[in-house]
Amino acid sequence: MHNIWKCTFLVMLLACGTRSSFRIPTKVTFTCCESVSPNRFSHTVTGYKQQIAQGPCVHAIIFETDKGQICSSPGARWVQKKMKEVPMIP
Q1: If we measure between CA atoms, which residue out of 32, 57, 48 comes closest to residue 81?
Q2: Which terms in the GO cellular component ontology are assigned (predicted)?
Q3: Average pLDDT over all residues of the chain
Q4: What is the pLDDT of residue 39?
Q5: 63, burial (CB in 10 Å: exposed 0-12, middle 13-18, buried 19+)
Q6: Cβ-count burial of 12 within 10 angstroms (0-12 exposed, 13-18 middle, 19+ buried)?
Q7: Which of 28, 65, 23, 26 is nearest to 47 (CA)?
Q8: Residue 69: what pLDDT?
Q9: Cα separations (Å) of 25 from 15, 21, 22, 32?
Q10: Distance CA 87, CA 19 (A)
Q11: Are 47 and 87 contacting, i.e. CB atoms less than 8 angstroms apart?
């Protein structure tokens, strides 16, 4: 009878130790511009933010519009002009 308790305790100990070493991985996602467009668009712009190049993300100006976000080329002249007309989003 004493050996049954030892075996039970050992099985429980192993189960607890094994369980803590298996964790569900955290999903890493990127929400960024992986490419930009130099083209103009006709959507209403409410603001912008700058994105630096890091990992899969490229250097971009992200305009917030009435249709969603648009990734634009920071070097385009119209982008520089539009950035002066609308507020920067923190």
Answers
A1: 48
A2: extracellular space
A3: 83
A4: 95
A5: buried
A6: exposed
A7: 65
A8: 95
A9: 20, 12, 9, 22
A10: 51
A11: yes
**Beta carbons of 62 and 48 less than 8 angstroms apart:** yes
- pLDDT for res 31: 86
Q: What is the 3-state secondary structure (H, E, C) of the chain?
A: CHHHHHHHHHHHHHHHHHHHHCCCCCCCCCCCCCCCECCCCCCCEEEEEEECCECCECCEEEEEECCEEEEECCCCHHHHHHHHHCCECC
Lowest mean pLDDT among 19-28, 46-55, 56-65: 19-28
Whole-Å CA distances, 35 to 16, 30, 76, 79, 84? 47, 13, 14, 15, 23
**37 vs 78: CA distance, rounded Å:** 12
Other Cβ atoms closer than 10 A to 7: 10
Q: What is the pTM of this model?
A: 0.67
Domain boundaries, the chain: 27-85
Residue type, 25: P
